[in-house]
Design brief:
87 residues, four-stranded antiparallel sheet, alpha+beta
Length: 87
């Protein structure tokens, strides 16, 4: 039995990833997402540092094709050592 979802695929789906600011954080996050969503464009990526610069929030707008794809992206992002939270 498959899990139900309120999403209709394919759809645009924003993923927000927050983590410790480091020289490769944004590149690592984009590489993880791009592995599962190879059509990710540079215009679909935005980032913003925290007030003190200790953290960074990266938002990627994915053209999601399935719930399984999104689950896989979230699992891999959350396994990254610098990721603090994903939304």
């Amino acid at each position: 039995m498959s899990e139900e979802t309120l999403l209709t695929f394919p759809c645009e789906f924003p993923i927000k990833i927050m983590g410790r600011a480091g020289e490769n954080f944004e590149a690592d996050v984009v590489a993880i997402v791009r592995k599962h969503a190879p059509d990710l464009t540079e215009t679909a990526i935005s980032s913003r540092p925290s007030g003190k610069g200790n953290y960074i929030a990266v938002t990627v707008n994915v053209n999601a094709t399935s719930k399984e794809q999104l689950d896989t992206i979230y699992l891999e992002l959350n396994a990254h050592e610098s990721v603090v939270m994903t939304l």
